[in-house]
Specification:
Radius of gyration: 21 Å
CATH architecture: Alpha-Beta Barrel
Helix content: 25-40%
CATH class: Alpha Beta
CATH topology: TIM Barrel
Number of helices: 10
Shape: globular
Order of helices and strands: HEHEHHEHEHEHEHEEHH
Bound molecules: 3-methyl-2-oxobutanoic acid
Number of domains: 1
Amino acid sequence: MTRTMSVPGGGSGARKVTTFDLVEMKARGEKIVAITAYDALFASLVDAAGVDLILVGDSLASVLCGEETTLSATVEQMTYHGRIVVRGASRAFVVVDMPFLSYQVSVTEAVRNAGNILKGTGAGAVKLEGGFEVVDAVKAIVRAGIPVMGHLGFTPQSVHALGGHRIQGKGDEAAARLVEEALALEAAGVFSIVLELMPTVAARRVTEAASVPTVGIGAGPDCDGQVLVLHDMLGLNEGFAPRFLKRYAELGKAAREAVERYAGEVRAGAYPAAEHGYESAGPEGDGD
Ligand code: KIV
């Protein structure tokens, strides 16, 4: 039996979202809907649901691989997951995270890694974390023709330097610094900036100051768009419940209960039942 992926609404000929569309959405006051995906199946589902942007986040290191932090993600991993997400996305703009140490060592390495990620995935852009310290890398990557998304506030690749998962930009001075960093990133050429884990007022200040759209996570309602980690908002990660996260489903519980029912039926001899078996007589079939 061949297992083809059904892409509801996919292949409908809908035009792919571009960086220009995202910038224009800010100008029109239209919210940008972003979400993470790490594979073709989930990418096709969120694409069919009409999201504007799919982020192949290095959060896959913790969400999929069980790591404590995102630091272990590699260019190879991001390229693999980026490629399979691009396969599932027909309309949404796909952005792939540059992993830790792929852009911090030198500008040359940053450009090469960004280019290899784009070449290896077919995605539309890369994202990298940081403020003033990454401006040179952003400029060089953009000069190479690669769109870049910035990421300010809590930057998970610096979790140890930041002393844990702490809210950034608290107080007037810290918020003013975030605004300065956002403007520096914008001048360097980013088309959008993720704002993670910061007070609502700080995100509002950055959003008002920047001409490029901000996409918030744990940064309040005033950003130009929102992003969530798909597995978290679907409730697949049952133990993860930060204040900013709204769960739109409880798929972790549903999956666990389904497997418990399956295990119970196998042990009781109730599955497979007669209707799940094949006859020895009759036409040749492929198992459908
Ligand atoms: O890696 C990721 O999923 C991210 C989002 C949390 C914005 O960077």
